[in-house]
DNA sequence: TTTATACTATATCAAGCCGATATATTTAAC
DNA sequence: GTTAAATATATCGGCTTGATATAGTATAAA
């Protein structure tokens, strides 16, 4: 999904600024399966605005300087619906930590242990935060996707907890460092 | 991880051509947690070559035309090890399918069902392929990462199998199509 | 046998994305 | 009273992505 579609998705749920859209992907409901940064959001909003798919309202007062709140237009809603009607492309998972663990034998054992435990801590914390959501009034889609995310994070934590000692001891550590 | 490090990683396991490197990420042992295409691989190999981190051997005969086989140099091995010594950045998961399911209420129910079942089929097949690997002579790191991948794919399949009927029936379908 | 399809193999390109950075105000903390 | 964090918009170079071009080889079908 391109940045334009992601922005439209956030806006069909309610008006938002570029900053607020970013927060949705950083900490909000999309954080565990999509990401888009300012460098994509602001150009996307400009293009969507040009195409008449969203409308902007500038609010100069209200504390912060020149906040621009965007709202999706009926045309924007139609375009968003059409985007969803297409077959989605396959998932993309990029885990540098998995790549690093793949090469465990090339690593200093202490570094491997640190990376391993930081990774576990990160996902345990993420699960904790996700479990806090109050399901009251939340859409079926959002609840389902949250459950899916929880299921696989929990699988990762379980696997890594169960195999921790075995893996950290089995990895020879710095195998051919003196080559 | 940038394309250069990913290429170095493949090459420390054994000499390979650009085409063979690509296959490692398309179908090989890295397929489920990293991806890199020709558009990144060939420029990366050129740069690594310039920097003396890999050496190229052209084999004009042997059937195919001008196949270039790359081998990592001692300097390349050192650089690769240093890359792994850094703290890896957090995982990036981009699931357009999850995004689509988040907005289930905006979708045609038949389309949602099709996407849902295609997704399940895709991951069931991926699990089947991953389970085929013969663990004989495979490194600890590779076995661990494969187990991790299997664990979370299985979690996804289990969750989606268990919640299929509930979700597909609960999603109202085309909720506000006539707005 | 010829034709078509798939595979091996390298390479480039436009469009778009990513991470970092710049700028500036406001709120919160110490 | 000062520092740090949060709010807020925006840009930029470098890199990645997906598509495309090119071309020989192997395999299978007609």
List keywords for this structure.
179 residues; 2 domains; 8 helices; 3 strands; DNA-binding
Counted by DSSP, the helix tally of chain A is: 8
The strand count of chain A comes to 3
Beta-strand fraction estimate of chain A = 5-15%
Low-confidence spans of chain A: none
Would you identify the CATH architecture of the largest domain in chain A? Answer: Orthogonal Bundle
The most extensive interface, with participating residues per chain, is: A-B, 66 and 66 residues
Strand order of the largest sheet of chain A: 1-2
Radius of gyration of chain A: 21 Å
CATH superfamily of the largest domain in chain A: Winged helix-like DNA-binding domain superfamily/Winged helix DNA-binding domain
CATH class type of the largest domain in chain A: Mainly Alpha
**Helix vs. strand class of chain A:** mainly alpha
The shape of chain A is elongated
- Mean pLDDT across residues of chain A: 92
One letter per element, helices H and strands E, the order of chain A comes to: HHHEEHEHHHH
- Note the main sheet of chain A: 2 strands, antiparallel
Helix content of chain A: 55-70%
Oligomerization: homodimer
Number of domains of chain A: 2
- Span of the ends, CA to CA of chain A: 45 Å
| CATH T-level fold name of the largest domain in chain A | Arc Repressor Mutant, subunit A
């Amino acid at each position: 999904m391109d940045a334009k579609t992601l922005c439209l998705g956030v806006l069909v749920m309610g008006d938002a600024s570029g900053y607020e859209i970013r927060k949705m992907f950083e900490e909000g409901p999309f954080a565990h399966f999509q990401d888009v940064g300012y460098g994509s959001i602001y150009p996307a909003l400009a293009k969507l605005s040009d195409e008449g798919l969203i409308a902007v309202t500038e609010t100069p007062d209200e504390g912060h300087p020149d906040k621009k709140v965007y709202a999706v237009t009926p045309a924007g809603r139609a375009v968003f619906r059409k985007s969803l009607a297409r077959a989605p492309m396959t998932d993309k998972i990029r885990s540098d930590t998995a790549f690093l663990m793949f090469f465990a034998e090339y690593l200093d054992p202490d570094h491997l242990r640190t990376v391993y435990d930081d990774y576990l801590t990160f996902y345990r914390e993420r699960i904790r935060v996700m479990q806090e959501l109050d399901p009251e009034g939340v859409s079926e889609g959002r609840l389902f996707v949250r459950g899916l995310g929880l299921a696989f994070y929990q699988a990762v934590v379980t696997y890594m907890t169960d195999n921790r000692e075995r893996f950290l001891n089995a990895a020879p550590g710095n195998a051919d460092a003196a080559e």
